[in-house]
Structures are given as C-alpha cells and as structure tokens.
Specification:
Length: about 900
C-alpha cells in the first residue's frame, strides 16, 4: 500500500445560507445554531477581474469567486506560488470549467486551471497527485450549490440519525480550501488541519462492508487506531437505508472492545441542511475549524438515536453542547475523521489532525461576543456626566455597538488614569439606552452617598476607587463546589491559556476527569440524569479537587495573560491553598501528586466514604453498617453561641468559621442535631459530607504532608498567606507541605485570615476559582470597611458574562488592567489580492474620527448649561455629514481601483498580442 503524502489546509472560506462570513459560520457551529435561510448573492465585493466580465457572470458564480479569493488570501501564499484550481460540481449548471478559469485569474493567469470533479474526495485525490508530482505548489478546491426549492424548515431538524428526524433540508453553500503538502507548509503557514489519509472504495455491492473497509484503509494509511479519533463527521444523508448502512459500517470499524464513549458524532447538515455538491467541502471546513479551535461541536436539537439496539456496543456519543476537546491520556494531537457516501456509489473516509506545531491560533470569538463594555473616565463629576451624554448621542449615529464600544475604548485609553471610571455594559441598543439613562442618575447618587452604583446587567461605578488606596489579592476558594459544565466556554474564549505553563501543569489531570464534567451520552441527558451524574462527581473528592485546581489555574491564567491583572498577594480558603500553589506557579509539577492522590486512601476511605479516620479516632469498627454516622451543617449563628453550645458534645466540631455569623459544624449526626435544636437557628446540610479541619484528621497529618510536598520555584516579590499560622509563609518545599497539612487538620477561622490580610493594606479581593462564597464571606467580615470583593464564576451565569462583569468592577476601582482583548482592531481596511505585488490597502481617511474625538474632548470639559444641547445637536449633524463623506470617498476609491485594474489587464493583453506578432 502506498504511503499517503500528507496535505495541509492553509486557507479556507465558505458562505452557507445566511452566513456571509467565515467567522459567523464557525460561531454558529460552536454555538449549535441552525440557519436555513437562502444565501444572498449580493455584496460579492471587489475582485481583481474587470467589472464588465464580472457582470456577465451569474450572481452565484460571482459568489464562488469571492469565496475562492478569500480562501487564497487566508493562505497567504508567496506571489510566485503556482496554483491549480479544481471545481467540485454535480452538474454543468454553474459552468465549472469557466469558474475554474476565473478562479485561477484571482491569483495568476498563468496558473493551470483544471475542470470539475464530482466530489471533494476525488478532488483531494487529484490535488495530492498534482502536489506530489510537483506540477503545482498549491491547489485550490472550490464548490458551490444552490437550491431551487423553497426552504421549508420542519419543527425539528437535526442529525438524521435522531429519533425525531423525518426530513432532510436542502441548503445553499459555496466553499473553497487551499492545500499544500504538509512538508512544504508546516514552517511558513497557518495550518487549519492536516489531511493524514484518504481512502476510497468503489463498485461494492455491500454498503456496510465497503464503509468498514474504507475506514480501516484510512486508519492504516494514517497509522492510527479507531480509538485515537475524537470526532467523526458523518454523511447523515437522511435516506433511511443509507443511514442504517453508514452507522453499521462505522460501528464495526470503530469498535474498541471497551464500554468507552471515545468518539463524538456530528454533521454540518444539522446546522445548514444538505448543500449537495458543496456539502463535502463544507464538512471538511467545519471539521478543520473544530480541530484548529480545539472543540467538539454541538449537534443542535439532538434527542436520541432511532434504533438504540444498533448502537449498544458503539464508541460514539453526541454532544448537545460544544465543549473543549481535551486530549486523551497519552495522545499528542487531536484527530478527526469524515465519512462520505458519494452519489457515484463510492465510499470515502478521510483522516485529519491538528497541526501540533500550530501554537498561535487566531480567533475573533472573544472580541465578537455581543456583550459590550463601554469605558468612560474623567477627573470630575461634570465631565464624566458629559461623556455619558455624548455616548447617548453617539449611540444614535453608530452603525453597530461593537464599533461604538471600540471607539469609546480608544478614547478611554487617553484618559484611563483619571480620577473616576464608569463601566457601562449592554448586549444591544435597547439595553445600552436604558443603562445610559440609569448611569446619569447612578453617578450622581454614587457621588452624593458614597455608595457604588451597580445594575442587574453589570454596569458599575464607584466614586471611591480602592485601587488608588490598597493592593490586590487573588483569593482561592476551597474544594468540593465544582459542577457539571463548569468552564465549558473558557478555552474557546481564551485559547491562549492552552500555552500557559501553569495550565500545562494541571491540564492532563483535568482532561482525565473531563467525562464527569462534560458527560458523554448517545441520548440527550435529562435533568434527573444530570443530577445523578453530578452527585457522582460530588461523591468523588479527588475528581472534585482536581477539577477545581484546574479551574483556578485557568482563571488565573486568563486574568494574567489576557487582561494583565497581576497580584503580588494571594491566600486560599481550606484546600484553596493547594489551588493557590499550582495556579500561582509555585509548584512546578502536579502530576505525581495527582497520581498519588488517585491511589491514596486519604480521600477514598479515610476522609470520605466510610471515613475510617473518624472511626479510628472514635473507636468504631471500620466495617460498620452505619454510613450516616457523620454529617456537616451550616449554621447561621454567632460563633460565640455555637462554641458555647458544643462545650459538652465530645463528637461535634467547628471545622469552619466562614464569617462571624456563619459557622460549619460537623460530627456525629445525632449530636449535631442536638446542637442545632439547642441553638434554634437556621441550619442547612452541606452538599458534601467529607471530613476536614477537625481533630479526627490528625492521624492523616503525615499523609497530607507527603501529598503537598512538591518541587517549587520562587516567585519574587510575592506574598502568600496560610491559615496554618495566619501569616505570610516561607516558600520552602517542606514548609509548604507542613503548613497545608496543619491548616487542614485544624479549625479554619476565615475571618481571622481575612483580617490579617486586610492589615497589610489589601483592599481588592479577586476570587479566582469556582463560585462566589469567598467574596461573600469577605464582605460579610469586613462590612463597612473600605474594600471590594469580586468573583468571576457563578453557576448559572456564562463564563464571558461573569468575567466582563468582574472587569467592570475592577476597572471602576482603578485596578491596573488591559481591556483591549475585548475589542476588535480599529482598522477598517479593504484588501484586494493582486499577484506578484504586495496587496494594496485602502484605508478610509480617519479625519472624521479625529474631528469627532476633538469634539468629544472639548464637550467633556463643559458643564451642562443652555448651550450644551445645541452643541450636541451640531455634533450629531457634523457626525452624519462626515460619515456620508467617508462612505462617498471610499466608493470613489473603490471605483478608481477597478479602473486601474482594468487598465492593467488591458495593457497585459496588448503586450501579449505584440509578443504573438
């Protein structure tokens, strides 16, 4: 069998249904959205082909030229690169040979133009031959198909394997990819995915056997096993006989012999319908983007399979929400596959993998999130109010909230060191209008009363910024508060955290418990099923601990690497001291400890489960039948009263003092109930029932020291506090191990630790971990003393919203940070590809923006008076006039570009004619 020459996808673009941009298409895949509206043929943009010729083409043909041009630009090929063009078409309606010729002219009129292939897989075969024979340096494959049918959307449309799926929707699509040999591309290009193998089986009378054979050949060519594949894009034709044959053939090929759901299934048809000739290349683009951005895509509206018995020994599952694609233990790259059943009776299987060397992965997902932060700053109340009013006027003239937020941020950067800062948050124009109206009143109240202004949406202002008065501390919450779905979107929002050394330290362990955090199933899990799985997570203290340590590391990396929030002080609540050591980079390796934790009886039998440490301390049989002999409860009661109530109870402890009036008691269940009845206070059972911070743990002291004694690195100029002695600690391997062991074996008085830290002028507390309990306890302890406690995770609130709201508070409190990752680059440029030359860039004249900036600046110094409204009206008129001028100037420049390009083409023809003579 011949060795397969790997190819790299270095450029791609597609337009499907109503998705006119690649970013919008990819976002819809990640968010599990569906769109079946017809694809607009308008707005094809400028192309380096004379207008007269372009106008002779059908709108659909013009569209595929635009898509091909975008894919070529993404590829960023050298101007001298020799390119072949292959069109994929099932009919002659779109004149594939003519389109291939036009596409080749987008790059270089001397490049060979190849005609049509019936499928993307036969086109890939041809591309590989052209590249390996060195006939060309790169290949562009393009496909287009439009339905003439009316787009009728059923109530439920999803993967055709679904039990409720009974119709196939036909969609529109145009797509293109640019390929090079992997060896050629790997050092110089962005690689979306590597094509490791392609197999095709033809002329087989047995569909099931042919599909299995195609899979097995592809596995052999790629030198992998079925268990290595984490995502499989299926054909899912919607034809019952074909669907049944496809899944039977795939299950036979992918069986691993273990009851392990190792491979996710999906199909782009669930998102956009069947785009026929374009469906193969769009499936390829979708799968490449999932590899590039490292996530398992959701299948919208999935409920469960039609024939459960068929899937009983299947390794497949279906994700109803997109999730991070964690590497399996021992794997070094993510691998996906695409299965295809072609209309000509051939069966194809394609293996793709991520480019392991691809460190930087461009993503606009964060900056395009529709939750905008408008930052305004000034030294005086009046000028700040003027800026809010100016924002209100600019809102009426702005084409988009994203652009307005970016322009506002640019102006804020000039004044970010002012005395006062307000952060206004909104998702749409209606919300922003309301928030601005509230802000005018809220700022005045904040100045008059000294109380911070905060809206339910998250807008925030303080007239008493703590960042100018004190220092920042990262606070690491305790364990046993993790939950299903935690951090689901963090890696998509903040992909750079994959490269953080601290994240690499904990990544493998978090990946190992991924299936508890993001459960896998072939059917959509019910609420009750999810509750059962979550209880299993809660009952697994090691998995809870590892997930929370990992999450704390992720959040710390995001704050530091993205928003440049750095703190020289940190402390933790209970096992939060462990999270602190890892997230702050003090411990350089957690793997050995994690391996030991998983094998140690400490959290399996001593402190959890049968709780043998307690049984030994109390002289109870280790194999006793009474499993409910121990309980933990939260009491809302002053500490002094609780201490008095347990004086005569030998088996009741106060392991945790959260606030002066919130206490946790633990011990013998009946004795705890007697204390609660005696105090007659509000009491709540805790969600966890482990043993911690009490005398029966003393027998486990040496084991705790061993687990927490790890190699360290010094973090200069940093202070880390411990509850062992309620003082800053010495960064020494053995000291850290003993401190953590001591603090876990003794009562934790969190208010005492808070007050000690506050004594060192810590005024800003950022809770870096799961939940917001520590923030609540800090505020309940410090009460009216100057401080701000901010959490960045709350169950039921998505990660992006939580983080942006936290940033709004920190910004207003003058904490040093960088908000730029939230905003797109303020560069409005039009790129036109021209071969053998640098790409010319047309930038609109920014004089309009400069004039607006000057007007805003001058207005910000005025006090509200009778002249102010008139000035604002004048400013609005000027804004509209300059906007019209800007658009007119850009249109003129575009026409000039076309004229110049036409003249160049005419000159080339004259020169070629003279050469022929």
């Amino acid at each position: 069998m011949n060795e397969f020459a790997k190819m790299a996808i270095i450029g791609l673009d597609c337009m499907t249904n109503a998705y006119q941009e690649l970013d919008t298409f990819e976002r819809s895949i990640y968010e599990g959205k569906q769109n079946f509206l017809p694809l607009s043929h308008t707005n094809t943009g400028l192309l380096p082909i004379p207008t007269a010729e372009i106008q002779q083409l059908l709108p659909q043909q013009q569209l595929i030229l635009k898509v091909a041009n975008n894919a070529l630009q993404h590829g960023k090929l050298h101007p001298e690169t020799k390119i072949a063009v292959i069109m994929v078409s099932e009919s002659q309606n779109h004149q594939p040979n003519k389109l291939a010729s036009y596409i080749s002219r987008l790059w270089d009129a001397t490049s060979p133009a190849f005609g049509e292939e019936k499928s993307v897989f036969s086109a890939l075969n041809l591309a590989q031959k052209l590249l390996t024979n060195k006939q060309v340096d790169a290949v562009l494959i393009a496909a287009i198909d439009f339905t003439k049918e009316e787009h009728k959307v059923p109530d439920i449309h999803t993967l055709s394997y679904d039990q409720n799926s009974d119709a196939t929707i036909v969609g529109d699509g145009a797509a293109a990819i640019v390929l090079q040999l992997h060896e050629t591309a790997k050092d110089n290009h962005c690689i979306y995915a590597v094509i490791d193998a392609l197999s095709m089986v033809q002329n087989s009378s047995n569909q099931v056997a042919a599909i299995t054979q195609a899979c097995e050949i592809a596995f052999h060519l790629a030198d992998i096993q079925a268990k290595d594949i984490g995502y499989l894009e299926v054909d899912s034709s919607g034809i019952p006989q074909q669907d049944e044959a496809e899944i039977q053939g795939l299950i036979t090929a992918y069986k691993t012999g273990k009851s392990h759901l190792s491979c996710a299934l999906g199909s782009v048809k669930a998102n956009i319908g069947n785009t026929r000739a374009a469906s193969g290349i769009i499936s390829l683009i979708k799968t490449a983007l999932c590899l590039y951005h490292r996530y398992i895509p959701a299948v919208p509206q999935w409920t469960g399979v039609k024939t459960p018995d068929t899937w009983r020994e299947s390794p497949f599952y279906v994700a109803t929400e997109s999730k991070p694609w964690f590497l399996e233990s021992g794997a070094n790259r993510r691998i996906a596959a695409i299965n295809r059943m072609e209309i000509d009776g051939s069966y194809a299987h394609l293996i793709l993998s991520e480019a392991a060397s691809q460190i930087e992965r461009n993503s606009k997902y964060l900056e395009q999130m529709p939750y905008y932060l408008f930052a305004l700053a000034s030294d005086h109340r009046a000028s700040l109010l003027n800026q809010i009013t100016a924002l209100q006027i600019n809102l009426q003239n702005s084409p988009s909230l994203s652009q307005l937020a970016s322009q506002t941020f640019r102006e804020f950067q000039k004044h970010q060191h002012s005395n006062y800062t307000i952060a206004i948050l909104a998702r749409n124009q209606q919300e922003l209008t309301r928030e601005i109206e509230c802000a005018i009143q809220g700022v005045n109240i904040a100045f008059d009363t000294g109380k911070d202004w905060l809206t339910p949406l998250g807008s925030y202002f303080t007239a008493n910024p703590q960042g100018k008065k004190g220092k920042v501390a990262f606070v690491y919450p305790g364990s046993f508060t993790s939950y299903i779905g935690i951090g689901r979107n963090l890696f998509r929002l903040f992909p750079k955290i994959y490269n953080d050394p601290v994240i690499n330290n904990v990544y493998e362990r978090v990946a190992n418990i991924e299936q508890l955090i993001y459960p896998r199933s072939i059917t959509k899990l019910s609420k009750r099923q999810l509750e059962t799985i979550e209880q299993k997570l809660i009952d697994d203290p090691v998995s809870m601990l590892e997930s929370e340590v990992g999450f704390a590391g992720f959040m710390t990396a995001i704050l530091k690497n993205y928003f440049q929030i750095h703190s020289k002080c940190a402390f933790g609540y209970s096992l939060g001291e462990t999270s602190m050591m890892l997230a702050q980079g003090i411990w350089t390796s957690f793997k050995n400890t994690s391996d030991y934790l998983n094998s140690s009886p400490l959290f399996r039998t001593q402190l959890s489960g049968p709780k043998n440490a307690v049984r030994q301390a109390w002289g109870l049989p280790l194999d006793g039948d009474n499993k409910d002999f121990w309980s933990n409860s939260i009491l809302i009661c002053p500490v002094s009263q609780v201490k008095e109530a347990i004086k005569h109870e030998n088996r009741v402890y106060i392991p945790l003092i959260n606030t002066p009036e919130e206490v946790v008691i633990a011990g013998e269940t009946q004795a705890c109930q007697r204390v609660i009845q005696k105090l007659n206070c509000d009491a709540f059972p805790t969600s966890i029932n482990h043993v911690i911070h009490c005398e029966p743990m003393h027998s486990e002291y040496n084991e705790l020291v061993k687990i927490n004694t790890l190699p360290i690195q010094n973090i200069p100029n940093s202070i880390f506090y411990s509850a062992a002695n309620y003082e800053p600690i010495t960064l020494d391997t053995h000291t850290i191990g003993n401190n953590i062991a001591k603090s876990l074996c003794e009562q934790l008085d969190f208010p005492r630790l808070i007050n000690r830290v506050y004594k060192d002028n810590i005024r800003i507390f950022i809770e870096v971990g799961v939940g917001s309990n520590c923030s609540r306890w800090i505020s309940a302890t410090l009460k009216e003393r100057e401080h701000i406690a901010v959490s960045i995770n709350r169950r039921g609130v998505d990660d992006h919203t939580s983080i942006v709201r936290a940033l709004a508070k920190l910004l207003s409190h003058q904490v040093k940070l960088d908000l730029s990752p939230l905003y797109p680059q303020l560069k409005h440029k039009l790129e036109i590809h021209t071969p053998h030359k640098n790409k010319p860039v047309i930038s609109p004249d920014n004089s309009t923006v400069q004039r607006e900036d000057k007007i805003l600046k001058s207005l910000s110094t005025l006090s509200p008076n009778s002249y102010y409204p008139k000035l604002m009206d004048n400013h609005a008129v000027i804004s509209k006039s300059h906007t019209f001028l800007l658009k007119s100037r850009q249109q003129s420049l575009e026409q000039i570009i076309l004229l110049i390009q036409y003249q160049i083409d005419s000159y080339k023809k004259i020169v070629e004619t003279q050469k022929d003579r």
